[in-house]
Write a structure and sequence with these properties.
- The chain is α/β, with parallel strands linked by helices and 314 residues long.
- The strands form three sheets. It has a six-stranded mixed beta sheet, with helices on both faces. Strands 2-1-4-5 form a four-stranded antiparallel beta sheet. A four-stranded antiparallel beta sheet has the order 12-13-11-14.
- Helix 6 links the parallel strand 7 and strand 8.
- Helix 3 packs across helix 4.
- The longest helix is centred in the middle third of the chain and has 16 residues.
- The chain is globular.
- InterPro entries: AAA+_ATPase, ABC_transporter-like_ATP-bd, ABC_transporter-like_CS, ABC_transporter_ATP-binding, P-loop_NTPase.
- This is ABC transporter ATP-binding protein.
- It comes from Candidatus Comchoanobacter bicostacola.
């Protein structure tokens, strides 16, 4: 075996493990400071932090695009500094930036990416159209990246990350700058993948996105984890969660449900407050079953955002 064995105390159910990881750039800037973090297999883990907190640096080290100054990183039990290629095999990465050749076609982007992971062209050919269909890019194979809309480029980044059928999906601000329809499409796809067993690590600026998608969270500030835990244990869990539901059409009736306080703000907006333990997704499905389709959800008094701001104000 070329990879380092599990350290004492590490568990086989851990997908990602960072142990005392630091990254100091040339010039002395310390982006990540003695950081330790574990993400269990099957988790949907959110990483929150202000710009410059160290989120992207941490992700780049995890996927082998940057080397830590000190510390160790295991991906599914593989030390990514001992066998970087083997560690990379199980990870799909969707970066925040559009790092694709503008003159490549969608077809070329997918085949080139498969080659980076050691996939043969025949292997890529068997799966790439299904992946493009999953993200809503069917029939776009011969379009160049330059010709795609901004939303389509984000879809292509996601498709590229799914090509290798990863057991771990790492997403750096996947819905930054996209419209509400695409954001909902991405949310639905990510929840479906997580339900199938894919471990997901997400960085996001959208607090409602973190609260809607994530099971566990960590807050990164000045390169350090300052708090982490199950989402129900963070963000003042005894408070009600406040949401605004922006509907696709005029509201015909207000649908009641246990643990949910709901009132109509205007002809297309519902004000919704969920008690501790009440499920946002369950109530959304109830509305859908009653023929009331939600366009998007916002959270003007998001409890997680209030907590996050309190933790990172210094």
């Amino acid at each position: 075996m070329r990879y380092r064995a599990w350290e004492p105390g590490m568990k086989n159910n851990v997908a990602i493990s960072l142990q005392k990881v630091s990254k100091r750039y040339q010039g002395g800037y310390l982006a990540v400071d003695n950081l330790s973090l574990e993400v269990k297999k099957g988790d949907f883990f959110g990483l929150l932090g202000l710009n410059g907190a160290g989120k992207t640096t941490m992700i780049r080290m995890m996927v082998g695009l940057a080397k830590p100054t000190s510390g160790t990183i295991w991906i599914n039990g593989v030390d990514n500094q001992v066998d970087a290629f083997l560690a990379k095999q199980s990870v799909g990465m969707m970066p925040q930036e559009l790092n694709m050749n503008a003159f490549n076609t969608v077809h070329e982007v997918m085949f080139n990416h498969g080659g980076y992971y050691g996939m043969s062209r025949s292997d890529v050919a068997k799966v790439y159209k299904d992946v493009l269909h999953k993200v809503g890019l069917s029939g776009r194979e011969q379009m160049t990246v330059k010709a795609l809309s901004g939303g389509m480029k984000r879809r292509l980044l996601l498709a590229r990350s799914l090509l290798v059928k990863p057991s771990i999906l790492v997403l750096d601000e996947p819905t930054a700058g996209v419209d509400v329809d695409l954001r909902k499409d991405i949310w639905d796809l990510l929840l479906s993948l997580n339900n199938e067993g894919v471990t997901i690590l997400l960085t996001t600026h959208y607090m409602e996105e973190a609260e809607y998608l994530c099971k566990n969270l960590a807050i990164l500030h000045h390169g350090k984890i300052i708090d982490q835990g199950h989402i129900s244990q963070l963000a003042l869990s005894n408070q009600k969660r406040q949401f605004l539901f922006h509907m696709q059409n005029n509201i015909q009736q207000v649908v009641d449900h246990a643990g949910v306080e709901v009132s109509q703000k205007d002809e297309r907006t519902l004000s919704v407050a969920l008690d501790q333990g009440a499920s946002l997704s369950t109530y959304l499905q109830l509305l859908e079953n009653n023929g009331q389709h939600v366009d998007y959800v916002s959270s003007p008094s998001n409890r997680l955002e209030q907590y996050f701001r309190a933790q990172t104000e210094n």
